[in-house]
Each structure stands twice: as C-alpha cells, then as structure tokens.
Design brief:
Layout lengths: L3 E2 L6 E2 L1 H6 L7 H43 L7 E5 H4 E5 L7 E2 L3 E4 L15 E3 L4 H4 L10 E5 L3 E6 L6 E3 L3 E6 L6 H9 L1 H9 L11 H4 L3 E5 L2 H43 L5
Parallel strand pairs: 6-10
Antiparallel strand pairs: 1-2, 3-12, 4-11, 5-7, 6-7, 8-9, 8-11
Helix pairs in contact: 2-8
C-alpha cells in the first residue's frame, strides 16, 4: 500500500517500485511450454467466442427477417392510415423535471431500447410532484414508447401499472383501442419498412430526430380487425421469445468462455499449468 501514490481516486504505482519488484520466472523451457499451451487454448477460446457472437447476430437477424415479412405481405383485410389518425400522443419533451434520489420512477430516452425498457439509469422525481408534473396525460401499462432523437425510433412498451413519470425525448403513444392493438403497434414501429419511413423524415446534421408533426404523417397499414392483429402479435411474440432464449444461451457461453480464459491465465502465472 505504501507504494501506491497519486490523487484521491487515482492511484498509481511508482516507477521505482515496478523496477525493484521481484517477479518469479520459470526456466526458459518451461516458459515455452506454457506459451504453447496458452496459444492453443486462447486461440480456441477466441474462435468459440466469435462463433457465439455470430450466432447471436444470426438469431436476431432471423427475427428481423420475420418481422419485416409480417408487415410486407399485406392482404385485402388491411387498411391504410397514418400514425396521427389512429394514435394519441402524450408528449413531455421540452420539460425538465427536478430529479430526486427516490420517489416516482422517471423514464427517459435512455431507458427505451429496441423492443424493451431498460431499468438503468434508475432516476426519480419526488412523489409529491407527480400530479403537478403529469399534466399532459397519464400513461398506462401497454402504452407504446417512442424516442424522437438520441436515439431516433427506439420503441418499447410500458411494462408496469405503477406510477411512472416521463421526460426527455420520449413520446407516449396510445392507439385507438378499437382500431389498433398496442403490441401490434410496437412491432409495426419496430419493423424495417416503418423504421425506414421514420428515418427518411428525420432531420438534424449531427443528431437525427423527428418532429411530432412529421411523425403523425407517417403512413402505416394494419389488419382491419383486432383479432387478426393479435394473431400476428402471437406469432411474433413466440419468435421473439425463441430469439431471446437463443441469445441468452450464447451470452452465457460467452461469459463461460471469458471465465475460462481468466482461469487459464491465472493458472499459467501461478505455476499450475
């Protein structure tokens, strides 16, 4: 500990300590034996990790293909409309709430990912301020959340009945329940064709975004009946669950391979190989 110096929170080891530190080194032939073992093992681990990462990408690409197909093959039972004709916006953009260490959870664009809500960063506003803050409309479980910039066009659904507050680059979408199913809308907005339409209307030299009035004009198509929409949702839910299961398996494999790599290096430099 005496060898550690530097400013608070920024420790460093002195050059003199490094130069004087004694490191046990095995004979040259033993070093070469260890190097051969590590070279072979680490190369195998690198290949296995690359394969796992490729499989994750392939699983996601396959789901994206199914998603695009679902919204590209429109039959006679589909109707054309625009986002603004069938969806109500609740828009808290432009307002900046006072954040607190606890209270009502605050959801911003940083929480909205492609298809799901991420818990972090976990931010709050004071519970006593909730009623005065949420004057533009109250969100409900299942509402579709859309990020208008940084990033543009991330889409998720609100997954809780608890009170939550919104701010910063998020529009809450509440479709006409008689015309459009919430989850169908989520998948529709995630689909390649609609994503491309939205991005084509995007503006901004450095950070691409879309104005609410332009977002309302985006053309969308959907089955006329909620029952048919729910059939498509059921199929996509099943495919998405399978994709997430495969991704989870390969993520676990990646973690195990990284742990194996650390274990091999530890054994190599503690004389256990």
């Amino acid at each position: 500990a005496a060898s550690m110096t530097g400013a608070v929170g920024h420790k460093r080891v002195s050059k003199d300590f490094i130069e004087s530190c004694l490191m046990p080194v095995p004979p040259l032939h033993e070093q070469r034996r260890i190097v051969v073992i590590l070279d072979e093992a680490l190369e195998g681990i690198a290949i296995a990790k690359s394969n796992a990462e490729t499989n994750i990408q392939s699983a996601r690409a396959l789901f994206e293909s199914y998603l695009q197909s679902a919204f590209s093959q429109q039959g006679n039972g589909w109707m054309d409309s625009t986002i603004g004709e069938v969806i109500r916006f609740i828009d808290y953009r432009g307002k900046t709430p006072a954040k607190t260490s606890s209270g009502v959870r605050l959801i911003t664009a940083k929480n909205v990912k492609m298809g799901y809500l991420q818990e972090t960063p976990m931010e709050f506003i004071a519970s006593a301020n909730y009623r005065n803050w949420m004057t533009r409309g109250i969100p409900h479980k299942g509402d579709v959340l859309f990020t208008t910039e940084a990033p543009l066009a991330n889409v998720a659904q609100l997954d809780t009945d608890e009170k939550v507050a919104f701010a910063q680059r998020v529009i809450i979408m509440q479709p006409d329940a008689a015309k459009l199913d919430n989850t169908f809308l989520k998948y529709l907005l995630l689909s390649g064709p609609v994503q491309r339409l939205i991005r084509a209307k995007g503006t901004g030299a450095t950070v691409q975004g879309i104005k609410a009035r332009l977002l309302r004009l985006i053309k969308i198509s959907f089955p006329k009946t909620i029952a048919e929409q729910k059939k498509i949702v059921e199929m996509l839910d099943e495919l998405n669950a399978e994709t997430e299961h495969l991704e989870s398996i390969y993520q676990q494999k990646l973690a195990a391979l990284e742990a194996l790599k650390r274990s091999l290096l530890h054994q190599a430099f503690s004389g256990k190989l």
